[in-house]
Structures are given as structure tokens and as C-alpha cells.
Amino acid sequence: MSKHTTDVLVIGAGPTGVGAAVRLEEAGIDYTVVDSSDRLGGMAASHTDGQGFTWDLGGHVIHSHFKEFDSAVARSGAPMRDVLRNGAVWMRGDDPYSIISTPVQAQLDCWPDDLHPDQPAAHLGEYYRNTFGQKLTTNFFNGYNEKMWTLPLDQIDHSWTSLRSGGNGRNVPQLGLAKDFIPSHETFPYPIGGSGALWSSIVDQLADRDAVTLNCAVEAIEPEKHLAHLSTGDTVDYRHCISSAPVTWLIDSLGWDVADSRLRASTQLAIGFGFSGEPPEALQGKSWIYCPDMSVPWFRATMLSNYDPRNAGEGRWNILLEVTGSNRGDKPGSGTGNIDVERAVEECLTSLTCIGVDRDSAESVWTRRIERGYPIPTLGRDQILKAADAALKSRDIFSRGRFGGWRYESCNQDYSYMQGRQAVDAIFSGSDEEVYWHPERF
């Protein structure tokens, strides 16, 4: 057992931790990065199963709003593919012909006459009702969002929609009519080898690659002493800490009550099916499919072999389904969080057969339980986060990233990367962290 001293301890080697490490090297500041996983990338990591299929942990799309992120990707040398953005919605699980193109709001056959977009909304359910009308809210937004967030929409804030769904952001599709709808031919970059390959390539460009240690967890932290205890038995004495570990864990280290219901996360089960042959017509060319039907366990399916054929290999294809658990019963998609894996796999496979998938062609079934899938934007979330942020920063800890920051609207890969960079600049120059608190400005 030994004691190590560093200027900045970075907890987590996902996009936020990697962004911090890159910025620290640029500034010539001593740092140490530790991560409990056996691979880089955090929730953006990739996994290859025993049958040779590659799986991401979600339907990752690499957008970039920042020149610093663009520069990191370019320097990494990671080979990329341009993938056609071609989403779809499977409206009804009992109707294989109810698959329509996204955005669903562009598929209206008549303009809603019950819109109240300027009316204040108390929660996400009211926001959708005011913005899109009752029909679209009932048929799509309610089911899809309840499956994803695992809570009734009257418990969900709507401020994140400025970036994601129906807000006024420049990247959010607005209402339209089917007769005026022109499918987008937009593409997005995707790393060959899976999303995790990008983060491995960025870390490979670090001058001090040995400053990053995997399979090493921070088991406890003493904020007042600036001391971290590692799973190896070693300790780290740090001046500053940038953490992407769940902020609830750090709050607990302060002696606060982490059971506050305003910080909630979904439990998620990633289910990957690898098949021989070609996908059915309904899935050919699709990038992802949303499903609002509560009788179908998954809320999103990602055609990873359409992202990159090498994710499956020649003559094969693969699809990743995301299932969540919640507080409304024990059925996958509306369960308690204790998702029955065997049942979820069978129900997901059955749902795929409804749209033409031959279950006998399955070569691989890959599952990964994710205790924290999405940070849920519950009502009152930001009051807790702002109080926690002030308390942690007063102890030289910046908690950022997907669960370190607990702000869904701020944790795409490029935003998370910039959170790490901006945390470094805030520590050493006192600059603002607009990406974390104001992602809508980018």
C-alpha cells in the first residue's frame, strides 16, 4: 500500500475524464486518472462478445458543437464512417406496418387545433400537450417518454427539451405535416470499431498514457482531507478532483441524505441480438427505431450493423434494444428496476419477429445490466444539484459528466468532453462552465 500525490485526481475515464486529461496535459498540470472499468469510454464504451458482434451500450450519435472536440477527434486518427441519420417509429407492436419515419411530429395528416405553446407547463406531460396537442402526446410522447424515464411525466421537468424534443433549439424538428415532409439526408460520424474506439484513440494521443489507470476504483473519498482511497489499497492525496462518479456518492461523502427523491436514475438492460443473413425490409437502412407502445418492452432499438457492417461481420447483422425498469410493476419496460433478464430477452425477441425477424437465425444474445442508465430530469433536480455543486466546489471537487453532473441535457459525448475541459479551466482560471449549466447556448 502506498500514498500517491497529484495536483488533479480525475475519477472516471469516460468522455468527461478524457476531456479533463487532455486539457490538463495542454496546461502542463500533473494529473492522475482512475477508472473501475477494464476499458475506456464509460457509457460510450464498446464490447465485443464471444461470437464477434460489437455492442455499444446505447444508440450513440457523435454530434459536435465544439471546435475543441473536433480537434480531439481529428488528432486521435480514429477512422470514422458517415452514417445516414434515418430514424423510425414503430407505433403499434401488433402492427408490423405501423413503422413511420422520424420525426413523428412531421407525420401529422392535419394541423392540431388544440396547441397552446405559450402556456406555462408544470411538467413534461403538460409541455408535450401544449406543444404538440393531445393526439400526438397520447399516441407517441406519453408512451415513449414513460418507457425511457420510467416515471409518470408529471414528475419530469421539461427544461431539457430545449435541446432534445420539440423545443426551440436549432437542432430540434418542429411541427410539420406529412405532405410537406422531406426526409433528412443528414449523416453523422461513427467510429469504426464502435464508439469506444474513439475514446481509446484519444487517450492513446496523451503524452503520459501511464497517468490513466483502469481496473482501479475509488472506494471512498474524504473531501475535507483531499484524500481518495483506491481499490488497490493505495491512497491519493490530491489538490483538486474532477469526478464523473455519481454525484449521489459524493453527496453521501458529505454526510447529506442521498435518498432525496429528486435525484433519480433509470435502471437499464441493454439487449443485443446478432443474426445471420440480412435484416428484414422494415429494418434495412434504419439507424434507430423508437417504440411508444407499452406492450413492447424496449423503447429504442439501434441497428448497429447499419452504423458499421463490421459491428456484425460479413453476412450478419445486429440490433441493440434498450429496456428500462421503473416503479409501475414487474414487466420489462415498466418494471421495478429488478428487470427479469430472461423474460425481457424473450419478449424483445418476440417483438422483433413481429416485424419480420427470423428468430432461428439468431447467432448471439448479449445482455448488459446498467444500474444507472439515464439521469432522470425530475422536478426539483437542479436545486439539489446547485446546492451539491457549491458544497463540493468549496472542497475542491468538480462533479461533472453523465452522472457526475446528473443533467441529461448536458451529457452527449461532445458536451461531456467539454465539461471535463471546462472544469479544468474553472479550477485554474476561474472561467465559467457554460456547457454544464447552459448547454442550450451551443
What does this protein look like?
- This protein has 442 residues and is of the alpha/beta class.
- The protein has two domains: 3-45 and 64-79 and 192-262 and 379-441, FAD/NAD(P)-binding domain (3-Layer(bba) Sandwich), CATH 3.50.50; 86-185 and 267-371, FAD/NAD(P)-binding domain.
- The protein is 27% helix and 23% strand.
- It has twelve helices and 20 strands.
- Strands 1, 2, 9, 10, 11, 12 and 20 form a seven-stranded mixed sheet that branches. The chain has a seven-stranded mixed sheet with strand order 7-6-15-16-17-14-18, with helices on both faces.
- A hairpin with a 5-residue loop joins strand 3 (46-48) and strand 4.
- The longest helix has 17 residues, at 413-429.
- InterPro entries: Amino_oxidase, FAD/NAD-bd_sf.
- This is Protoporphyrinogen oxidase.
- Residues 17-247 form the Amine oxidase domain.
- It holds the Pfam family Amino_oxidase.
